[in-house]
Amino acid sequence: MYMLKYILKRIGLMLMTFSIIIVTCFVLIKLLPIPLGEGLGVDKQLIEMKLRERGYYDPIPVQLWNYVVRIVTEGDFGIGTTMPGYINQPIWDGFVSRLPPTILINVYSSLIGVPIGLGLGILAALKKNKWQDQVISTGVIVMISIPSIVFAFLIQYVLCFKLGWFPLRMESGTDYFSWEMFKSMLPAVFSLCFGSIAGYARYTRAELTEVLTGEFMLLARTKGLTRGQATIRHALRNAMVPIFPMILGEFVSVLSGSMIIENIFDIPGVGGLYLKSITVLDYDFFMLLSGFYTLVGLAAGIIIDISYGIIDPRIRMGAK
What we know:
Blueprint: H1 2-30, H2 44-53, H3 60-74, H4 91-126, H5 131-145, H6 148-162, H7 179-212, H8 215-222, H9 227-253, H10 259-264, H11 270-280, H12 283-311
Helix pairs in contact: 1-12, 4-5, 4-7, 5-7, 6-7, 7-9, 9-12, 11-12
C-alpha cells in the first residue's frame, strides 16, 4: 500500500514538473518572432496562412489551450516552419522517422558498456590494491575526466581515418539491422561506451569492496563457502542493490540519446534534430523534442526509485 501511494505521488509530481517546464518553454517561445523560413526558398505567404489557421497569432493563453487540445484530441504537435526537409509537414512524422537511430546507438552502447564496466569493477574489487586494481582505477579516472566528444574525435581519426576499419559517417537508409549499417554505427557506439564503462566500473568496485569487508562475508566463509562462492552468492547480490537501478535508469534514458555524438558521426537521430530546431528557430520541433527529453529524464528517475524496493525487499519506498 505504501509503495502504491509512493508511485502515485511520484507520478503526480512528475506530471506537475513536466507541465511547469513545458508551459514555461511554450510561453518563452511564443514571445519570439516566427522566422517563416527566410532564405529557404519557400512560400512564406502559404506558411503564414496555415499558421493563422492554426491560431499562431492568437493571445498566448489561447495558443497554449489550443496546443494542448490539438495534442490530446488529434495527436497534432504542429507543422515545420523553418526545418529543412520538414517545412509545412507534421513534425510528429519527422520525429518518429529520426527515433530509431538514436535508440539503436544508445542500446548498443549499453549492451556493450554494462558487462564490460561490471566486469572491470568486480575484478578491481577482488584485486584491491594490486596492480590490476591500479590499472583499472587509473583507466576509469581517465575515461571519466575526458569528455566523450574527445573520444569521438580520437575514434574518428584512429579507427576510421587511419586504420579504415569503420566509415566516418553512418550509412544512409533505413535498413538498421544490416551488417553495414551496424558497422557504421559502431564508432558512435564506442564513443558513448567509455563514460558508461567508467561509471559502472567505479560504482561496482566501490560497492563490492565495501560488501566484501562486511561481517556476514566472514560468517559465510566460516560456514564452509569458498571465497568465490561467498562472493557470487552473497557479495554480488548485495552490491547490485544500488548498481542495478542505475542500469535500469540508463536503459530508460537511452532514448534521450547523445546530441553531440550524433552530430559528429552524422547519425540521423533526434539529437541532431533537436540542435537543428534551435539553430533554425523551428518552435514546434523545439517544443516536441523538449517535452520528449524532459519526460524521458523524469521517467528514468521514477523507475530508478521504484526499482530499489523491487530489488531489495528491505527497502520500502514511501513507508513511514
